[in-house]
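Moderator note: this is an archived Q&A kept for reference. The question asked for a predicted structure of one protein chain; the sequence and the answer are reproduced below.
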Amino acid sequence: MNKRDYYEILGIDRNAGDDDVKKAFRRLAHKYHPDKNPEDKSAEEKFKELNEAYEVLRDSEKRANYDRFGFAGVGGYRDVSDVGYGGFGGAGVDFQDLFGDVFGDFFGAGRQRRTRGQRGADLKYDLDITFEDAAFGTDKKIKIPRAVTCSICNGSGAKKGTSAAACQTCGGRGQVRYQQGFFSISKPCSTCKGEGTIIKEPCSECRGSGRIRTTQSMSIKVPAGVETGTRLRLTGEGEAGLHGGHPGDLYVVINVEPHPIFARQNDDIICNVPISFPQAAMGADIEVPSLEGKVKLKVPAGTQSGKVFRLKGKGIASLHTGRRGDQNVIVNVETPAKLTQRQRELLEEFASISGNDANPMSKTFFEKVKEMFG
């Protein structure tokens, strides 16, 4: 199914500012949220579409990549299905918090703000792989230092067998309200810092934070066709969230090591192969390297230096289609650096009996010179 343009989804033009992006999303998300349309399957799909568009356009880097490269600049390996109803790309933004706080605090009589979990931080890991790994794909094991949910207190931060108590200053609301003339203003409680609870007996393992730092091993699948700069997103593999918040994501950034023989050009690979003058003049069957081992190549008689031979399907698999590119073999005719006396005599004899017909490129060149100068 063809995807719609993100600006079209939000109903804004490409010069829209960040505030315009946010306003457009809030308006449409309020309209199509599944909680408001429980029986409407199309509303659910539109809401997912909105989430995907908003996640890209609200981020300046992603938006710049999208403006320049379209969906290819932001596609990666993420599917729309991993955007949940409760957040934007796993950000844990609650629908009620998004809209309720605005109107409730404005009129000073809205609902009480409940405690929200904080999303964990995203992590970045630089992974070096070989040229062959990039061409065919590979599985890699990596070790990631990150914060994880404390297994002793299950992230609550309270000592085992105890729990956090409601803050007496704000009554567990996390907010304190001040009256200023006709206006009622809510502010985060300074005692509990807006949490609504106080931990009197902290967990001895995490010291009340709800998380501990550790190094964990994990296996990742690197698909065929990646190149330097490709980012793989592992949803939920970043740092653990706080107070039940969603975990962050892990971004694995690929760096492909250079190859001593091959060079990459899009999905094709290039290989320069030296051949001797006799091989070029008389033709020969030679073996050339490929990513899958040596292959035979027929060099016809009269081959000139720089001639390109194409080996179909011997390149790199496309990251998007899986179809393999080609291998371009460029032959370079080598001139002997040192000659024996006998070799020199034979070459002199060859030169003396050779006419222009033996050197078609030289013949054509000198004919053009003659035409220029008469």
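Archived answer notes: The longest strand covers residues 138-149.
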